[in-house]
């Protein structure tokens, strides 16, 4: 945690304190408390100190694990297993005993707690700016190391996925029966599916202490929808997007990388898209440095595509083909966080960790996306990604 | 989804509608919308109909996937990538166009949205009763099948864990060097750790389409803390708790099972605890039937322990050893949901799916817990667990 930045940004809020009621699933909570509590608990920042309130069941672990200045338990407020109103009474006392009469809460903080504190005379304001997200956006060296480590695991997973593709055979007309179409990829005699490749990615990550909720392994028309996770048999001669964003179980930090592969012979349109996307990636990466805006990095990618006549949201806000998403996003405890690399996005600072991921999409061609992970440094950026860019694998 | 039950319970609320602003990570949202949206979206229940509002990016998938009566997209309200206030304007219009002037929201719904709707003249009330959780508690046959299927995967994972323990050797004085203590379990020459067993469980689950966030593999004093996930080398001659609660990736429903194993010779105290816990499990299972209360099922387990002189929360609310948790919990889209098997818990109904998991804990002895998964039927219950109860494995 960057305590100086935290004190500067949270010190600037209009209320007496900043209050979180969330479990470790909330990145702000995990960051501010430093505690991996599985159930919602309170963390209050006030007067430069971080205070955590947990149940008796979590107290021992919270005391040893939390980065907070004080850790209290429910029993300190004579609350054991009372009802909801008793619980809110305890929350109000916890807040008041820190000299706090007004708190800021994130927009997605729980309305039940906010209303209950208001009923008990504590002013609750919604922090529409996500101040804690802004604190988290700039990483310490330790956080960058955690992301780098997750990225190493990610590369092992990508190698596992690529190996399946490399080993795959292409079903010919002769092999084809009623169930297997020609050009289907076969792995050990069975059609190679998106699900099978995703499974291999997950196992490789598990073996390296990482987990993930979802992976994208999408070929053909599926790859033309950037949100499609992919399903069913993969085919030769068309681009296959593999996008992996694991989280380290130990540090809770994420990595993120995308490669696009083709087994066999891509058609000329797909080949051109790949080359364009590789140039868009290079152009955007080159633009990443402190002082540059996220909008400028996005523009660098867009310009490569636009010069080639491909639509982007800049040339056509309604387009459903071409470059139809932003160039990247911050990453850390959340897989998507501040800053953005998009129209309207602000200045990059040293310590920002962002993905750079241009791509082209059209159901008629499929999809191509390439994504590296970089950290903004004092004089430019460092690319945390160590994985080659190679389209055709066989 | 049990539509009759939904209409009956949601029809009974005091406001014009029930509003969710959440992603698929929220079980109520997943249940009511039937849509696996990765980002927060709105679902409104009003006048017996379910309405979903998603971004353009999710619209196609939501239309084909959602169980809702209507699916709308942001563009239907002329909203594209506007600011926060524009977004809230859209939300207010979405609600009002359904003839709704007041909504109920769950206690953990986002305060930002609640406040914004209030500013726009829509009354927002917090539903402290978690009506949707009560709807979800009673499962349809399809939901029960999904849980049963996840439980089959869970049993495969438990077998994988048990196999590692069966194969393990016990380090003797002769083997012990500076780093390996006598009685440490060795697997292929290396100390067998909690982490290694958990990894095997996760891989087995992945191979069967399930995922999990956490697993408990805890031996010795670690097992005496029901929330400790376990870490480091496992040892012979002491109880090892293995508690696995996976989620099916396809259906999103959970399973849950705990076994306690011992490699070598348990001491008499641990052996007695195991036998007692097996009897507590049997007694509690026998009590599970429609019309019985969760309190009665809990009492059945407590009575076995209390008769043997072991403390429970009923005999000593302050105890830190003995049976120090409730007997079980409902399970479904959430791993912990309604109903509870605990003091004060209400009547069981056919379709409730609950865990039954008595246990004993004391750092001096360790921990023992046994957990089966059952569904309440018209005339009793069906045990969904097919895994033997066997303490000593070798």
UniProtKB/TrEMBL annotation, chains A, B:
PROSITE patterns: PROLINE_PEPTIDASE. InterPro entries: Creatin/AminoP/Spt16_N (IPR029149), Creatinase/aminopeptidase-like (IPR036005), Creatinase_N (IPR000587), Pept_M24 (IPR000994), Peptidase_M24B (IPR050659), Peptidase_M24B_aminopep-P_CS (IPR001131). One of its GO terms (molecular function) is hydrolase activity. It comes from Halorubrum glutamatedens. It holds the Pfam family Creatinase_N. It comes from the Archaea. Residues 6-137 form the Creatinase N-terminal domain. Residues 145-378 form the Peptidase M24 domain. Keywords: Hydrolase, Metal-binding. Belongs to the peptidase M24B family. The keyword Lyase does not apply. This is M24 family metallopeptidase.
